Amino acid sequence: MDRFEQTKKAGLFGILGNLFLLIIKGTVGFIFRSQAMIADAANSAGDIFASLMTFIGNKIASEPQDRTHNFGHGKAEYIFSLFIGISMVVIAFKLLYDSIYTLIYGSELTFSWFLIFVCIITIIVKLTLYIYTKSLAKKFENILLEANTKDHRNDCIVTSFTLVSILLTLANIYWFDGVVGIGISIWICITGVKIFVESYNVLMDISLDQNTSDIILDLAHNYKEIQKVDEISSTPVGYQYVVVLTIYVDGNMSTFESHKLADQLEQNVEALDKIYKAVVHVNPF
Fold first, then answer.
1. Where are the domains of the chain?
2. Of 15, 160, 202, 228, whose CB has the highest number of CB atoms within 10 Å?
3. How far apart are CA 285 and CA 248, in angstroms?
4. How many CA atoms lie within 13 A of 129 on its CB side?
5. Nearest Cα to 163, choosing from 41, 36, 38?
6. Would you list the DSSP string of 204-258?
7. Distance in angstroms (rounded) separating the CA atoms of residues 47 and 154
8. Is residue 82 a contact partner of residue 109, using CB atoms and an 8 Å limit?
9. pTM, to two decimals
């Protein structure tokens, strides 16, 4: 339960932090006509949506198994991270259009120290959120948290370039404002596509990673009674997997002993963090 409670907090912190940044970046960006800052504000709007999807997806995923969902609701994490990826791509294309328009027809950016101040505040807030969510994502292997971590990291880099574009206006270099807007949109799009692909793979029942499969095979080979192990089959149920494997034992072994062996192996496999349930079939060798 700690996994879901921590993810819930991260989602709430993300919503509040990004809402604050959206307000100050959008206000200052429109007042001083900075396309880079407006793009940055739109990115914050997307981040609010991402944090909201994290909160909702985590709430659904935390529901235990029931009669109609025998393996729980863990895939909700990937459904909502899919929404995050799609929203990021949509926002990216809108920003790309606006930034190219600004680059072609010129920027009307008016320099202000308020723009500099907002950039610094944004970097501080986003860096704090990045460090916080990264530690949780690494601890719990949660794709929703990973998506948010990438968002926060990207925002730190993006806002740094926004800061540079604003400072360059002091030297009457205005074209960089549109270039930064284009760079931001491309960055958002690439990140969104990566999140989409990762979520899609799980929803399409991608197999267990090779390293975990090797660990399971090693566990099986630790039993001298097991003479052969078939290839492992697996399907994801959220961030964990249901695995099925067939073992071969001496045909003269009693049914009781062979099933006792299978039960012990299932318990060993289910002790792994990535395994939700293990099913071991026994055949005579």
1. 2-203, 210-284
2. 202
3. 5
4. 35
5. 36
6. TTPPPPHHHHHHHHHHHHT-TTEEEEPPPEEEEETTEEEEEEEEEE-TTS-HHHH
7. 11
8. no
9. 0.67
Structural contact between residues 55 and 221, judged by C-beta atoms closer than 8 angstroms: no
Q: Is the pLDDT of residue 214 over 70?
A: yes
Longest Cα–Cα distance in the chain? 87
**Sequence-distant (≥ 6) Cβ neighbours of residue 61 within 8 angstroms:** 4, 72, 73, 74, 75, 76, 77, 238
The CATH number of the structural domain formed by 210-284 is 3.30.70.1350
The structure tokens listed for 215 are 């660990």
Asked if pLDDT for residue 116 goes beyond 80, the answer is yes
| Angle (deg, nearest 10), helices 175-203 and 143-168 | 170
Residue pair 282/251 in contact (Cβ under 8 Å)? The answer is no
For the stretch 220-252, pLDDT in tens is 989 989 998 887 888 888 778 899 999 999 988
Grouping H, G, I as helix, E, B as strand and the rest as coil, residue 280 is strand
As a residue count, the chain comes to 285
> pLDDT digits over 245-276, tens only?
999 999 888 989 999 999 999 999 999 988 98
pLDDT at 108 over 70: no
CATH class of 2-203: mainly alpha
